[in-house]
Amino acid sequence: VASSAVVDGEDVELTTTANMHGWGAFYDAENSYTVVGDTKVYIAVNVYDANEVTLVNKTGNRVPKQCPVILSTDNVQNDGTYSILLTKDAEPISYDGNDNLLMTSTAGVTVDNAYRLGYKAGENFGVAFYKWSSENPGAGIVYIKNPSNNSNAKISFVVNDNTTSLNTI
Questions:
Q1: Rounded-to-integer distance, Cα 112 and Cα 131, Å
Q2: What is the rounded distance in angstroms from the CA atom of residue 131 to the CA atom of residue 145?
Q3: CA 64 to chain CA mean position, Å
Q4: Which of 2, 45, 138, 146 measures 20 to 30 Å from 165, CA to CA?
Q5: Conformation bin of residue 4: beta by default, left when phi > 0, alpha when psi is -120 to 50
Q6: pTM value?
Q7: How far is 124 from 139, CA to CA, in rounded Å?
Q8: Does residue 3 sit in helix, strand or coil?
Q9: If we measure between CA atoms, which residue out of 107, 121, 141 comes closest to residue 25?
């Protein structure tokens, strides 16, 4: 979903369009990263019904290797795009959970009955998971399999930022 990804030594900068409102998808098979600033890292879990995916932060501010994630930031640039900065970790970490519903494509392997994070204009649209199929996708494209056999145009998601404790000020 990122409109551009710039790799500069140890860092990666993703730029999403103004329409994506700071949402992007990311995957790296070999390296893990720490996000910079206010960027949040989510995996997709708990399909409560056929059209709803819950995004939860189970990895803190880290993007583990071999773990497809959804990123969200409020870091808007002067041109209206959003910038997400990730710093490569010296020692890669992995996510040991198997509850992540997000998957990644393999170059040349057909993807069907899948949904990819995207944006469509209109009253009932916006940022959501939209139907996506490809006979020859590139490697590392983040998507989710259709959790049911329905033919809806999109799968919406809810964000669940778990707060573990609140302290009085």
A1: 9
A2: 9
A3: 13
A4: 45
A5: beta
A6: 0.82
A7: 31
A8: coil
A9: 141
CA–CA separation, 54 and 61 (whole Å): 18
Coarse DSSP helix, strand, coil percentages of the chain, rounded to the nearest 5 percent: 0, 50, 50
Token pair 């970790």 is found at 89
Dist. CA 10–CA 167, nearest whole Å: 36
Helix, coil or strand: residue 10:
coil
Task: Tell me the C-alpha distance between 95 and 52, whole Å.
Answer: 23
CA 43 to chain centre: 7
CA 1 and chain centroid, separation: 8
Asked whether 65 and 30 are in contact (CB, 8 A), the reply is: yes
Higher pLDDT: 13 or 155? It is 13
Residue positions counted in the chain: 169
Question: pLDDT per residue over 90-121, tens digit each?
Answer: 999 999 888 898 999 999 999 988 888 888 87
SS3 49: strand
Going by C-alpha positions, the residue among 34, 41, 43 that lies closest to residue 12 is 34
Q: Quickly list DSSP for 100-144.
A: --EEE--TT--EEEEEEEEEE-STT-EEEEEEEEESSPPTT-EEE
